[in-house]
Amino acid sequence: MTVPPAPPSVRHDAAWYTPPDLPAALRAFDTPVPNLAVGRAGKVGLLELALAPAGGRTRVTHQYQRTPLYVLQPIHLDPHRPDMAFVYLQQSGDGFVQGDRYRVDVDAAPGAAAHVTTQTPTKVYGMGANFATQMVHLRAGAGAVLEYLPDPVVPFRGSRFLSRTRLTVHPEATAVLGEVLLPGRVAHGETHAYDFHRVETEVRAWDGRLLVADQLELAPPAAAPSSPGRLGPFSVLATLYILAPAAARGELHDRIHTAVDALPGVLAGVSELPNDAGIGVRLLAATSTQAAAAVHAAWNRARLHLLDAPAPDLRKG
């Protein structure tokens, strides 16, 4: 079953692109934005993509986009999975600013294979008013392979950001979700100098049952991220969720642990997700380079085990 495109009337409703039930700490920043208010043109980025197999490759069967969000033609760059479509999300601006509201919907039909990423790291600029949000809704149908691995998020001094990602996964699908949080513009003396950063991830079964819920909230003015129980001496946080049928996972847990455990500058934890949904990988690293190496090692190991294909070169500058 695929999700039908959203009707135009819904796309213009603020409830469509505004996260419900905002945390109290974020609501405190909900002040008017001068000059270009929330909801105005250029402040709402929408993207809808439906992908399905056709002629031996996965192709886009539906696309709707509203700038600042857009995508170009998907490419097929993996020689080991020539059917897989690689989609690069792009922004016409240079990052999130105060009052931005984004929503991304990606539906991978049964048998589709798609990798969704970003062209560059996501910048979240400092904000004198309000905040920015992004909602991502992903669906992976029976036998589909869906990877959502955006580049790291870079929160600037004074930024406020909420990211909500929901994956609905068929029991016969394979999905990989990843997220990386950098400390900010370290070269400018900014290390976790943002006001508020919250990431919520939710995985649901095909029938709507909640399988996995994970939340990360950092508010440096209230509690230093470097304190024990948060990031400690590390500055970069990365998470990987690998969803696959239990029969296909086998010894994947141990193989991922072996792949990331010995990497320098990285503290890694690999665990089974609730409800036998898959495997979760949490990584703390001292630098962005070390975090990228650890994420790639875990992703590569998962791909080799589940798809019999190594992680490809994504050809980013």
From TrEMBL:
Q: Any idea what this protein is called? A: Urease accessory protein UreD
What GO annotations for molecular function exist for this entry?
nickel cation binding
Tell me, in a sentence or two, what this protein's role is. Answer: Required for maturation of urease via the functional incorporation of the urease nickel metallocenter.
HAMAP family in UniProt: UreD
Q: What does the UniProt entry say about where the protein is found?
A: Cytoplasm
Q: Which Pfam families match?
A: UreD
Per the record, the gene is ureD
The UniProt subunit note reads as follows: UreD, UreF and UreG form a complex that acts as a GTP-hydrolysis-dependent molecular chaperone, activating the urease apoprotein by helping to assemble the nickel containing metallocenter of UreC. The UreE protein probably delivers the nickel.
GO CC annotations, alphabetized: cytoplasm
Q: Which family does it belong to?
A: Belongs to the UreD family.
Upper lineage is: Bacteria, Bacillati, Actinomycetota, Actinomycetes, Streptosporangiales
Q: Which UniProt keywords apply?
A: Chaperone, Cytoplasm, Nickel insertion
What InterPro entries does the entry give? UreD (IPR002669)
